[in-house]
Amino acid sequence: MSAGPRGDITHRVLPSDVNHLGTLFGGRLLEWMDGAAEIAAARYARRVVVTVAMEQVVFTQPVQVGDLVRIEAAIDRIGRTSIRVQVTAWRELTDGTAVIACAARLTFVALDASGRPVPVRGACPDADAPQAAETSPSSPA
Ligand SMILES: CC(C)(COP(=O)(O)OP(=O)(O)OC[C@H]1O[C@@H](n2cnc3c(N)ncnc32)[C@H](O)[C@@H]1OP(=O)(O)O)[C@@H](O)C(=O)NCCC(=O)NCCS
């Protein structure tokens, strides 16, 4: 488990989440990943944060209806007003094995009450040295 705030969440893939091929719609997965990453970033900033960039998105495995998708979101860089979060989505099979379905790097900006970027460094003293996301899934949610 990496240090610092995280935003791990797990979803069950339902029929309403799939595309015309019957596999998880990529846009839905990105929505879930954005949500998980926002939780990690907001926990660090202790403020409202907004997504400014979603980069290096790679889909590596299709996900089927009924699968669990475990999303791990860990902070990997603190800027002046921005927080970058590495996100990995794991497809969990019924037998407990897991494979990476998607990975991405998201950047958030903390905002003040007027909606302007505000410094975040040191906002979360417990997370001085946040680590990158792990390469194997954590224990089940
Ligand atoms: C986020 C937003 C407030 C930033 O405004 P801005 O005028 O670009 O602010 P700044 O130029 O001061 O940049 C703020 C930070 O964002 C970073 N940033 C800006 N554009 C970026 C990009 N394309 N990729 C990565 N980081 C970026 C800057 O590097 C800076 O980080 P730092 O302070 O850690 O160095 C503005 O772009 C915005 O409101 N975007 C829409 C957000 C939104 O609606 N998201 C979807 C819903 S959550």
Automatic annotation (TrEMBL):
Cross-referenced InterPro entries? Cytosol_ACT, HOTDOG_ACOT, HotDog_dom_sf, Thioestr_dom
User: What are the start and end residues of every segment in region (Disordered)?
Assistant: 122-141
Pfam families in the cross-refs: 4HBT
Which GO biological process entries does UniProt record here?
A: acyl-CoA metabolic process; fatty acid catabolic process
Hydrolase: present as a keyword of the record?
Answer: yes
Q: Indicate the segments forming the HotDog ACOT-type domain, all copies.
A: 3-114
Please list which residues make up the signal peptide: none
The GO terms describing molecular function are: long-chain fatty acyl-CoA hydrolase activity
Cellular component terms, GO, for this chain's entry?
A: cytosol
The record's keywords, sorted A to Z, are: Hydrolase
**Protein family (similarity comment):** Belongs to the acyl coenzyme A hydrolase family.
UniProt-listed PANTHER family? ACYL COENZYME A THIOESTER HYDROLASE, CYTOSOLIC ACYL COENZYME A THIOESTER HYDROLASE
From the Swiss-Prot or TrEMBL record, give the protein name: Acyl-CoA thioesterase
Recorded source organism is: Sulfobacillus harzensis
